[in-house]
Design goal:
Strand content: 15-25%
Number of helices: 19
Bound molecules: pyridoxal-5'-phosphate
Low-confidence stretches: none
Structural class: alpha/beta
Radius of gyration: 28 Å
Number of strands: 17
Helix content: 40-55%
Shape: globular
Mean pLDDT: 92
Largest sheet: 7 strands, mixed
């Protein structure tokens, strides 16, 4: 090490000196001394590396304090933070998928803060079965004989394949070998479960006879997978559910369906579900076992639901994989809360469903009101009411067009869409917006009560 670098190294303050500074006391109180030490240690190491690389760093106490306080401040924000969703994507996977209904939130809070009869039978004081209420609700709502709740839908599929098809062949259409969210791939889950994947048909066309031909004496199951996040267009065909169910019955096979997004019931007063199949229909049309997610369009917490024949579901209950997929009590409570709303048909109390069911008029009115308030609050920029393409999201219902309304922001003195998006993301309560043709777009469909005021505040303040 040359003399110059050695001399500079000596100027770096020691940890103890820093920790004695008066301005650090409130931070030590707030974050704990160990965390403050860790952050200081990382910064001091970074400065040493700068000097070792032959470069310079500003070691004035003022500069050091500003840098360190910025790092400490960043640490206070290191948690799952609420953000405001102005993207129009309702089940936004990166933003936590569905948000819960008030009733579900309250149920989760109560389960978290109290002992409960989670696995206790209050009638006779003996051990009870976890998840029983939510499972009973699923049976009532879908017409299934039996149901089982697990950690998520990927877990539900894994459990079904492990318990029902391990060491045997499972036939899947080539058009349904999907990957969802980069981590759920049918062939991989299949391999992990110990079942052997047999592909039938071609990507665009799979006929009943392709399934028939693929059946051997080792086959135990036909698996139908909902192509949640893509759509094959043009020349396509696949057998309908009843045909597959018949084939399975004739050959003594299990007919399983991974329904993915979990449209539990089709609310009759809303046309947006055209072409989508609800779980009740899957079961009525002959699926022996159906799995789906709780936090996609169902609008509940992260959960995986298995619904179907009692003999099959009973085989899942006792399987060792089941123990690893057990659902947390807060989640179970939130799920039950959501199910209560379904049973009352109070769909508008479930935020995901309410957002999906919003009318054009209500969104257009809201966008006009927001554009007006924004024009009053911020001078210089242009705010226009525009029709926007919203999305169900979460790898759900790719075929569903979801037209919405929004406010497009152009001619803003601070810059174009990319710059404004970054500024809005950097707020204490980050606002996540869309963009089109270099206009920032605020989609109103996914705004919550109170969000509008926050958006207006953001534009009224200097620096967006
Ligand atoms: C989303 C999805 C899954 C994975 O569900 P998670 O609840 O995210 O585990 C599996 N299969 C299909 C068809 C899906 O759409």
């Amino acid at each position: 090490m040359n003399e110059d670098i050695k001399r500079k190294m000596k100027l770096i303050p020691g940890m103890d000196t820093l920790l004695e500074k008066e301005w650090t006391a409130p931070w030590q109180e707030r974050l704990g001394r160990d965390t403050v030490k860790q952050i200081f240690g990382e910064e001091l190491a970074r400065i040493r590396n700068v000097f070792l690389a032959g470069e310079d760093a500003d070691l004035s106490p003022e500069n050091l304090r500003v840098t360190l306080e910025a790092l400490l401040e960043a640490q206070t924000r290191r948690r799952v933070r609420p953000v405001l969703n102005a993207t129009g994507v309702v089940v936004h996977t990166n933003l936590g998928r569905s948000i819960l209904a008030e009733e579900a939130v309250e149920a989760a809070r109560e389960a978290a803060a109290n002992y409960s009869d989670l696995e206790y039978n209050l009638n006779d004081g003996t051990r009870g079965r976890r998840g029983g209420n939510g499972e009973a609700d699923i049976c009532v709502l879908t017409g299934a004989e039996s149901a089982l709740l697990v950690n998520n839908n990927a877990g539900a599929v894994l459990l079904c394949l492990s318990a029902l098809a391990r060491g045997t062949e499972v036939i899947v259409s080539r058009g349904e070998l999907v990957e969802i969210g980069g981590s759920f791939r049918v062939p991989e889950i299949m391999e992990f479960s110990g079942a052997e994947l047999v592909e039938a048909g071609a990507t665009n066309i799979t006929r009943l006879r392709d399934y028939e031909r693929a059946v051997t004496e080792k086959t135990s199951m036909l698996l139908k997978v909902h192509p949640s996040n893509f759509r094959i267009e043009g020349f396509t065909a696949k057998p309908d559910r009843r045909e597959l169910a018949n084939l399975a019955r004739e050959r003594g096979l299990i007919f399983m369906e991974d329904a993915g997004s979990g449209l539990l019931v089709k609310p009759t007063d809303s046309g947006i579900w055209e072409g989508e199949t609800d779980v009740r229909t899957c079961i009525e049309e002959g699926a022996d076992i159906v799995t789906f997610s709780g936090d996609k369009i169902l609008g509940g917490p992260q959960i995986g639901v298995v619904a179907g024949k009692k003999t099959l579901v009973d085989r899942l209950r006792g399987h060792p994989v089941m123990r690893a997929l057990r659902v947390d009590k807060m989640t179970l409570a939130a799920f039950e809360g959501t199910m209560r709303l379904y049973r009352k048909k109070d769909y508008d109390a479930i935020p995901t469903l309410a957002m999906l069911r919003r009318t054009q008029e209500s969104m257009k009115t809201q966008a006009s009101r927001l554009a007006e308030k924004l024009s009053e609050a911020a001078s210089g920029a242009k705010f226009s009411v525009v029709p926007v393409p919203d999305a169900v999201g979460g790898g759900s219902c790719p075929a569903l067009p979801l037209p919405g309304w929004g406010v497009a922001v152009t001619d803003h003195p601070l810059g174009g869409a990319g710059r404004l998006q970054a500024l809005l993301r950097s707020r204490e309560l980050p606002i996540i917006c869309g963009a089109r043709d270099d206009a920032l777009v605020i989609h109103v469909r996914t705004l919550r009560p109170g969000d509008e005021a926050e958006v207006v505040r953001a534009f009224a303040e200097p620096g967006a």
